[in-house]
Amino acid sequence: MQSVFTGPVYVVRDNIDTDQIIPAQYLTLVPTMPDEYEKLGSYAMAGLPESLYPTRFVKDGKLDSDYAIIVGGRNFGCGSSREHAPIAIGSAGCKIVLAESFARIFFRNSVATGELYPCELTARLCDVLKTGDVVTVDLDAQTVTVNGTGKVFKFKPLGDVRPVVDAGGLFNYARKSGMIPT
Predict the structure, then answer these.
(1) By the 8 A CB rule, do 116 and 169 touch?
(2) Which residue in 7, 50, 100, 125 has its CB near the most CB atoms, within 10 A?
(3) How confident is the model at residue 136 (pLDDT cuts 50, 70, 90)?
């Protein structure tokens, strides 16, 4: 399994809710259908107000984001309990969300779907980084290194969450570990 991810970050603030992550009008897309899964990614973070986030997470007409990692503040993923939210972010090509804290249901949906590693920061990186800064996230060492400065920040261990996301979600993990038949 990959444990080190390097790429540009997309920085958001506190209380990014699931309506901002994937607006309700796109919930008709069915993530289990490959073409609709792809399309879902093109709408990831589309509900963010352009006045606060003039740089879009996914450029118009594109299916994938240029940003490999999202950095957020407190309470990332609050709002309704739609599993489309982490799926949309994952479909856009992002695999890690670094935030000070997560809404419980978003955290659980990230793990259950296997789309994202929800890494809980010990520092407020959304005040340190700006969109486009390049970082390296090491899941084994639980570190975020800012490539431009060499500064290193920590995040809390993923613990039992890590093997579930590594496996691609709860059902894949249960199959691989023999909890349910293959």
Answers:
(1) no
(2) 125
(3) very high
In angstroms, rounded to a whole number, what is the distance separating the alpha carbons of residues 177 and 182? 10
Q: Which position has the token pair 């992002």?
A: 94
pLDDT tens digit string along 10-56?
999 999 999 999 999 999 999 999 999 999 999 999 999 999 999 99
Amino acid identity, residue 114?
G
pLDDT in tens, 149-163: 999 999 999 999 999
Tokens matching residue 133:
């800064």
Amino acid letter, residue 3: S
Strands 152-154 and 143-146: antiparallel
Q: Which residues contact 157 (CB under 8 A, 6 or more apart)?
A: 142
Q: Is the pLDDT of residue 182 over 80?
A: no
Tokens (6 digits) for 159: 């613990």
DSSP letter string, 7-57:
EEEEE--S--BHHHHS-GGGTTS-TTSHHHHHHHHHTTTTTS-TTT--S-S
Amino acid at 54: P
What domains are defined for the chain? 4-176 (3.20.19.10)
Q: Which of 76, 154, 145, 146 is nearest to 116 (CA)?
A: 76
For strands 4-11 and 134-138, give the pairing: antiparallel
- CA-CA-CA-CA dihedral for 140, 118, 1, 40, to nearest 10: -160
